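Hello forum,

I keep getting stuck at the same step: I have a sequence, I want structure tokens, and every attempt I make locally crashes halfway through. Rather than fight my setup again tonight, could one of you with a working pipeline run this one for me? It's a single chain of 99 residues.
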Amino acid sequence: MRELENACERAVILCSGEVLQVEDLPPRTAAAPAVAAGGDEWLPALPEDGLSLVDLEKRVIERVLALKRGNITQAAAYLRVPRHVLSYRMEKYGLRRGS
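Reply #2:
Ran it on my machine without issues. Output:
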């Protein structure tokens, strides 16, 4: 998980514009298929014009909080991050319990 976080942060920092584009990713990352336990069906279709990593992270946090009915401890465990990290990100994005 930490490796993925580092790769995402690096891609955002090195991004040539305000929106992360496929061409902003390192070559081996851009060409690699998305992999999950059951394939990549959990990953939404990626828009041609790019994707805001910040918006994506916010939306994922919102959905997990809704799934866990606002329980921050359970949401943090689900996201595999420490509770204080999730609380920080919630504050950063202006999210509240049950958001």
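The mean pLDDT is 79. If your local run keeps crashing, start a new thread with the error log.
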